[in-house]
């Protein structure tokens, strides 16, 4: 008798936690486990701003999936681009471009999220994201390239002003940490450019919300705002981008900022894979799931992480869903694995509940704002808590060693501000890095599985 097939989509915090739990719980004869991911590493997303700023190397935050001694999961190098829940088939686009149909008995969807964009003229062509490892490495090259080109341009010229103008959109954690980290990069690098004056470099952080990082509370939000403004970053709240061009950005309040670097971090949206299921979604676009992480309308399908609106049973508000954070995703992965095992063995499933442990924000240097277990911290104590939390959350000893070594080396020796060659004549767009145009429509998925059933 064939073993049941468990397909896990996504190698983020949720997907990897699920696979590790399945490997430890199930015997080899109980099920076949497959993990669908384009890369054989787990990306530690919260540290991406430090990759972009050169504090950490890209390898430091790419935790290998092949180090585990218990490893017996088959890793399929590709991305899921469609699901037919009636036929129980997951359509996978391998990294070669080939489409394959993977039948499943149990499907765990943890495909994560993509950068949320809006229909803003020029955004698709000129916006840069901070959602993938390639984007972070590319952005570092791009910023250093702007300094190189500005140094070669005539003083006072429009080209020089636009190359030294940097705009980050999004006042959440990603945007705030990105602006803080990259401003430190340019501030430290300008000393190596004798023809540049630090006062020529302009950084703007823009967000449509009235407050910076409201989840931290007013006091810590103001503390983060003070840090950014003290460093010379202009923070504009209550406005957004009206138009993006190759050499400037127009804000909704009418201001036109010289800029050739627009970093877009204005929130995330559920993976486009969610739309292929034809299942109910919440206003956020995330799949509606029960407290045990099952998708109600799809037999054998579980969803979690950024792609699912998981009821927050430990929260204070009725009808609240868990925020898309790493601490929730990792714990949901373990519950999803336990419930898949329960479904296989015919035992009761359990609901997911977790009390949020707090938030940490590393602003680089000696600055940070954190709220661990509801305790508000700022400055060095907050940064120590933030880095300690991230270091402890890294999954392998090798990753912890690399990150700690990088932190120490950067603190002692600084940065050489070297471009690695990712910067090309063709700028990388959000679509290029996040592959949002690779997914099938629900009709294409059903037509494909129907044709395959007819051939059989």
TrEMBL record:
SUPFAM superfamilies: FAD/NAD(P)-binding domain. The keyword Flavoprotein applies. PROSITE patterns: PROKAR_LIPOPROTEIN. It comes from the Bacteria. InterPro entries: FAD/NAD-bd_sf (IPR036188), FAD/NAD-binding_dom (IPR023753), NDH-2 (IPR045024). Coiled coil: none annotated. Keywords: FAD, Flavoprotein, NAD, Oxidoreductase. It holds the Pfam family Pyr_redox_2. Gene3D superfamilies: 3.50.50.100. The keyword Oxidoreductase applies. Residues 5-333 form the FAD/NAD(P)-binding domain. Belongs to the NADH dehydrogenase family. This is NADH dehydrogenase.
């Amino acid at each position: 008798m064939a073993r049941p097939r468990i397909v896990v989509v996504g190698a983020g915090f949720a997907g990897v936690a699920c696979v590790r739990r399945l490997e430890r719980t199930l015997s080899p004869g109980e099920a076949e486990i497959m993990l669908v991911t384009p890369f054989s590493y787990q990306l530690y997303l919260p540290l991406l701003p430090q990759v972009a700023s050169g504090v950490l190397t890209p390898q430091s935050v790419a935790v290998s999936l092949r180090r585990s001694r218990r490893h017996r999961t088959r890793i399929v190098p590709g991305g899921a681009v469609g699901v037919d829940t009636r036929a129980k088939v997951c359509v996978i686009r391998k990294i070669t471009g080939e489409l394959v149909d993977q039948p499943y008995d149990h499907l765990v969807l943890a495909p994560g999220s993509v950068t949320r964009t809006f229909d803003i003229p020029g955004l698709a062509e000129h916006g840069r994201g901070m959602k993938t490892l390639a984007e972070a490495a590319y952005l570092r090259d791009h910023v250093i390239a702007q300094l190189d080109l500005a140094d070669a341009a005539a003083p006072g010229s429009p080209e020089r002003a636009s190359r030294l103008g940097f705009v980050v959109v999004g006042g959440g954690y990603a945007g705030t940490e990105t602006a803080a980290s990259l401003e430190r990069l340019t501030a430290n690098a300008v000393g190596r450019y004798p023809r540049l004056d630090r006062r020529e470099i302009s950084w703007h952080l823009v967000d449509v919300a009235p407050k910076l990082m409201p989840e931290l509370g007013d006091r810590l939000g103001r503390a983060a705002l003070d840090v950014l403004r003290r460093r010379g970053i202009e923070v504009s709240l209550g406005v957004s981008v009206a138009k993006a061009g190759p050499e400037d950005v127009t804000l909704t309040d009418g201001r036109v900022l010289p800029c050739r670097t627009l970093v877009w971090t204005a929130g995330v949206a559920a993976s486009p894979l969610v739309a292929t299921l034809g299942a109910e979604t919440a206003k956020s676009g995330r799949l509606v799931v029960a407290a045990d992480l099952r998708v109600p309308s799809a037999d054998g399908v579980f969803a979690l992480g950024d792609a699912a609106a998981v009821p927050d049973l430990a929260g204070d508000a009725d009808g609240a869903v868990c925020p898309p954070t790493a601490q929730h995703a990792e714990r949901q992965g373990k519950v999803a694995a336990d419930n898949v095992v329960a479904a296989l063995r015919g035992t009761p499933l359990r609901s997911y509940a977790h009390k949020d442990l707090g938030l940490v924000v590393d602003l680089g240097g000696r600055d940070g704002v954190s709220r661990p277990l509801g305790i508000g911290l700022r400055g060095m104590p907050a940064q120590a808590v933030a880095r300690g939390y991230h270091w402890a959350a890294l999954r392998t000893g090798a990753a912890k060693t690399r990150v700690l070594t990088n932190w120490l080396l950067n603190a002692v020796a600084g940065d050489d501000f070297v471009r690695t060659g990712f910067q090309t004549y063709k700028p990388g767009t959000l679509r290029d890095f996040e592959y949002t145009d690779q997914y099938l429509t629900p009709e294409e998925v059903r037509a494909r599985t129907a044709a395959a059933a007819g051939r059989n």
